[in-house]
Amino acid sequence: MSLTRMYGLFLRHFYLITRSFPRVLDLVYWPTIQITLWGFISNFFATHTTYYNNAVGVILTCAILYDFLFRTSIGFNMLFLEEIWSRNFTNLFIAPMKIGEILTSLVATALIRALIGLIPAVLLTSPLFGISILDLGIFLFFLFLSLYLFGITLGILVSAGLLRYGPSFENIAWSTMFLLAPFGCIYYPIEILPEVFQKIAYLLPLVYIFEEARNILINQTVDIQNIYYAFLWNGVYFVLSIVLFYYSFNVAKNKGTLINMGE
Amino acid sequence: MKNLVEVKNIKKNYGKNEAVKGISFSIKEDEILGLLGPNGSGKTTTIGMLLGLLKPTSGEIFINGQKLEGNRIEILEQINFISPYIELPKKLSVKQNLTVYGKLYKINNINERIEFLSEKLRLEKLLNNITGELSSGQKNRVSLAKALINEPKVLLLDEPTASLDPEVGDFVRSFLEDYKKEKKISILLASHNMNEVSRLCKSILMMKDGIIIDKGKPEELINKHGRKNLEEVFLKLSRSKNEPN
Question: How far apart are CA A53 and CA B53, in angstroms?
């Protein structure tokens, strides 16, 4: 693995972001709007339901966590799509970059993109709603790490689809998170789901992450098992996504998708 | 002169469709080989296989003595490609684009290399311009600078002067001739511009329906087919049955 090459690919996206004020605005705008909206909804529920009245920030904290996941996943997809849209895809794949270098570089860049959007929004929550996500304590780090892993896993899976099927897979890129959101139990406990859906939800790391966030904030206790299962499933899906990406790359080399990409 | 490119009986099938049906050729150092053929003849597929973007169904490709399969990264360090159908990121400045690709190709003295190429390709005043805002001719020269950033031993050119005005087209051709002579590189040129091919190429491959139907020096082909120029040879062969001449 070459750090110089990975830095080169990072630079390509860093230059793109820093050259364009609308792009920076776009990164910050949506998380801020999303979190402000959920802040007011959170306040409403906290004062009108018994479930949340012990923990004003539960919904808002979960909204912030979900937005981080969403931004990471979409961020990764965007980095890949940018190459297709700019017709630079072939240039990238004829550069002497290993697949591992491309993925590592995009994974790091996606994190930076997500943080650029999220940090200002998180800073807003304290003065606006009197809530700090830091209430989750040291376990906040594990929850964020777990969400980050799942976000890039989804990004890699979608990118594998783009490699395999070409730009026509783009619509799927935008909809994956929405498809999984109901099973993630982001704003409600898993018991709300029908039994069949619960079985599906338990196969995703999301339910363990959000159940644990609620557990910490409402019950003031920590269930290590939730964090363990979140990482376990993340590991499974992450490995699967990498294998699928390499497989898609080989299929693309057989089918010729790499030379037609962007047309 | 040693062969920098050796292609041995490569085939490429897309399902039942045979895009390339077992072709072999080589390119020596300090040589420009023209690859001609009508649309759909297999030129792009052949270039795709040389770039490692396409896996041949069978056959072998050697670049500078190394087999492409299994040495993709090492070989990509030694080759580069230019085509009007691919572009550099439009929102980045020329210098940013060249810096990015300098890093991707692990060039040690990127600034010196950019300075050298800028001078050679008349890009000095454009370095801080946004790539997407350049004219076709300027973009073409920037793409050429990117293609030369790694001092490739093998350069693959797909329609390198398409959509350029005659002055810029002539500049690019002269530059390529001089650069090839100076660096002793191998160039594969796919083009529909017969004057360009006649001027630059020492030898030519004519492809049609996935096979090489004829090959030779431009003047040899003109004499052999009793035509006035290469364009007439191209038309004759394009309309003929696919039997190697």
Answer: 58
